[in-house]
Design brief:
Number of domains: 2
CATH topology of the largest domain: Aminopeptidase
Structural class: alpha+beta
CATH class of the largest domain: Alpha Beta
Radius of gyration: 21 Å
Shape: globular
Number of helices: 14
Distance between the termini: 20 Å
Length: 367
């Protein structure tokens, strides 16, 4: 698929390169069908201190395979042909939410990562030119180096990251007293903890996650997204599931990157709260990640003032404001936005089989 895209846009990329060479850099679309290209990018990502898991080709390819939204991965190279910067993009197309180039699709980060401001500006210019070429009215960069002259979007989301102690005793002590008491109570219950990434783990995780997001009024992502991510990330992914009498009641799919665990897609059923399954879920994941050698726990992003925001603060995480950059039309796809209040309330009342059938058709366009 990427090879066909490259042929289609060859002349256009030559024009981009003329502009980029003015700054001493060339910008082109990476061929993510080429294993050598992916290894080269992964090497840059591993070495660059600002690179995130969303910069790995496995993220862009997983989103494309799992949602059908096309990847557009830009790389900047210096005159010697060395990588100087990266910008993974996803072209989102939706009849309801419109079109956009997003960095990165279905991620919370993944903006421009570059060694110099000149390389960053070349990538930003190439992204906007690509958007115009593909009739996308906007580009959104989630974090990374923010280009000059682009609109800042801030005061909406915060990220949560903290160190992860290496022993059970230190881990418990690091959790604030009130939340620590909830964790201790969960440990006294007859709940089971499973860790895996096989067919059963994926199926149970999807069932729990789908119910969780339906209860929040949000359409569930396609099952194929999780299957693609599990396959492409391999040993850098796993699923922790909490069971009550054999039934999955809480589950999270996590990705591992640079010694940090990212519990990215997680949730619980309606009975999970009464069972304290969510408390056991994240404590078990912390223990498991520490045993894997992780020194950090990234709790992802949450909207300021939301229940998830308060939940993460209760665990001792301090919010870090997230700043995004955008150019072109404003695109509001946040399901918790006031404009979607009625739709969200109606979605919560949908029978789960109907929500699971309709959800993937809508969520593909959120990005």
């Amino acid at each position: 698929m990427f090879a066909a895209i490259l042929m289609e846009l060859e002349l256009y990329c030559e024009l981009l390169n003329v502009l980029a060479h003015l700054a001493g850099f060339s910008v082109r679309l990476a061929d993510l069908d080429d294993p050598a290209e992916c290894r080269r990018i992964d090497g840059f990502v591993a070495d660059h201190p600002e690179a995130e898991l969303f910069h790995r080709p496995a993220w862009t390819k997983g989103v494309e395979e799992g949602t059908g939204q096309a990847g557009r991965y830009l790389v900047a190279e210096d005159p010697a042909g060395r990588l100087a910067g990266l910008l993974p993009l996803t072209r989102i197309r939706s009849p309801l939410f419109g079109s956009a180039l997003v960095s990165t699709g279905f991620g919370v980060g993944g903006g421009i990562v570059a060694g110099t401001n000149a390389a960053a500006e070349a990538l930003a210019a190439a992204a906007w030119s690509l958007a115009e070429r593909e009739n996308c009215p906007s580009v959104t960069l989630r974090g990374g180096r923010l280009p000059e002259g682009w609109r800042r979007e801030e005061g909406v989301y915060a990220g949560f990251l903290r160190e992860l102690p290496g022993t059970d005793e230190a881990l418990l002590k690091s959790i604030p007293r009130k939340q620590r008491a909830e964790v201790r109570r969960s440990l006294e219950l007859t709940l089971e903890v499973d860790v895996g990434l096989g067919r059963r783990a994926l199926a149970d995780h999807y069932d729990v996650y789908a119910e969780s997001v339906r209860n929040l009024g949000t359409p569930v992502f396609p099952r194929t997204l999780f299957e693609a991510m599990a396959r492409l990330w391999g040993e850098d992914a796993d699923i922790v599931t909490i069971r009550s009498e054999g039934r999955p009641v809480a589950s999270v799919l996590s990705l591992y990157f640079k010694g940090i665990v990212h519990p990215y897609w997680g949730g619980g059923t309606r009975e999970a709260r009464a069972l304290r399954a969510n408390d056991l879920l994240y404590y078990s994941l912390m223990r498991h990640a520490a045993a894997r050698g992780c020194g950090g726990f990234d709790f992802g992003r949450s909207k300021l003032g939301s229940g998830a925001y308060a939940f993460k603060k209760n665990w001792g995480f301090q919010p870090r404001p997230l700043v995004y950059a955008a150019k072109g039309a404003h695109r509001d796809v946040n399901p918790r936005s006031p404009r979607y209040r009625l739709q969200t309330a109606a979605w919560r009342r949908l029978p789960l089989p109907i929500a699971n059938r309709l959800g993937p058709l809508l969520s593909r366009g959120l990005g």
